[in-house]
Amino acid sequence: MSEFKNPTTEQEYHRNFEQIKPLMNDTQAYYESSRCLFCYDAPCVTACPTHIDIPLFIRQINSGNTAGAAKTIYDSNYFGNTCGKVCPTEVLCEGACVYNLQEVKAIEIGRLQTFATTKVISENKRLFSSGRSNGKKVAVIGAGPAGISCACMLRSKGYEVDIYEAQEKPSGLTLYGVAPYKITNEEALKEINYLQEQFDFKINYNIPFVSGEQFKDLENKYDAIFLGIGLGETSSIRIKGEELANCLGAVEFISELRINQHKTKIGKKVIVLGGGNTAMDAASESARLGAEKVILSFRRSVSNLRAYYFEYELAKSVGVHGMFNVSPVEITGNGKVEGVKFARTKVINGKLENIPGSEFIESCDMVIKATGQTKQVGILKNISGLKTDELGRVIADAKTFQTDNPKYFAAGDVYNGGVEVVNAVAEAILAAKGIDNWLNS
Ligand code: SF4
Fold it and tell me: φ and ψ at 371, to 5 degrees?
């Protein structure tokens, strides 16, 4: 039985989805920063995909130079505030902290990062400005972490940048795809506004790219084009019953939750299909929305979960039950979901197989498929010369992020297939440098 009641008001929603990494106060930040050993060749820096100078910003916090700390963070990562909250720090910077070797709690780097950047955002402290105009124009498709990071770096180098976004708000995944107990809508949007005010890039909303003519038009108007378009909808698992009412994709469910918050409908008993981080988020969110029972089902054993183990622990801590070595073969019901027919699985000669005759039905009134996302291959086909790999990811140079059509650069989910926000930021900054080098070669 879930410990959460279905939230019916905004206040109840925020209580159920309380931030798991709450903002530190000044004393907490001073105390935590004073624990840092300011290591030489710090492993936490190496573990960060954007290589923020962590000991430096922690020392700056400790000496009361919070704005300096924020500048250090933003110099490496334009999504410093967001990443402090949504990064899997447990396996990145904090996972690498030397304190782990001595069985002492790692420094809370993520929360310190959010502490410093929240201060400058709330005070609207100006840390950056755009570079002197160089007369060149770049179009950025997608206002998510990759697109915005690329835009910031290009603006700092004097490029005129126009962003085109299919949705009506910016932030991409951080607004529509991250669990709300990691970052609120307000926080995600505030960081974008903060960056936009300083770097002065334009964002054109509600402009999906669906035709070759649109790309041709951009090619005529701009010197280079950056693709930061992310991933598509939840992939089909091609079993009977997927079309039934109350069978949803996890991405669509999370997006609805981020937009409609406490008005999001949830079943009494929810079965989540999948073993990745999105499955963990969807399961935790179902419990926090007040589902009486949430089952997370996965085809393999618990040790084979693709999700970070701490995400599974987080889901369990809010009452999610794991059901392992079961494969869905049908979603049952008459018009709407009534259950899932599973077969038990086992590994035979290294191959996962359903055990004949092992089928059983687990009743439920909602199914959430967290079974991966489609790639935006349909959109990418409209760009001449652009190549994708067998998984639908755009092929681009690993250092410059230039694609086989030299005018196009790509980074983030469309290039890496879907990793973390911090990876999208790191790649997009390099892509912006790649664009700059190419346009000046
Ligand atoms: Fe500080 Fe830990 Fe990084 Fe060392 S590894 S600099 S103690 S955060």
Answer: -115, 30
